[in-house]
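Sample intake — Heat shock protein 15
Collected from: Candidatus Thiodiazotropha taylori
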Amino acid sequence: MNRATEQIEEKVRLDKWLWAARFFKTRQIAAEAISGGKVHLNGQRTKPGKEIKAGSQLRIHKGALEWEITVRVLATKRRPASEARSFYDEPPASIERRERLVEAQRLERSMAPRIAHGRPNKKDRRMIHRFTGKSS
């Protein structure tokens, strides 16, 4: 291995790593999230081009979800999701907090009333006619 290859493996751009670890679908979206303050490196806001190393602490906010992770593997290529999970370590408390939030959101969605879409059926039309006072 030459010296240039070794340097690439030691450090990786933050936006590229977030994309490779499958936190964001594109590098552009990852860069926008970092610039918008949704990603903190070692407890501080950072820039998309900041180089990270193994052992770096990241806090990622994506919608209502939050990850607190430690970078384990520096990856520059996007891998399958099963492999991407091995790029970082996440404490059980962070996983549990996110799972509780997802479950609460799922429960909230199931409790919300369903809104009918599309054209009214025969029963709906009869109710509309009754309500508006129009009868055949």
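Post-analysis note: The chain is about 45% helix and 20% strand.
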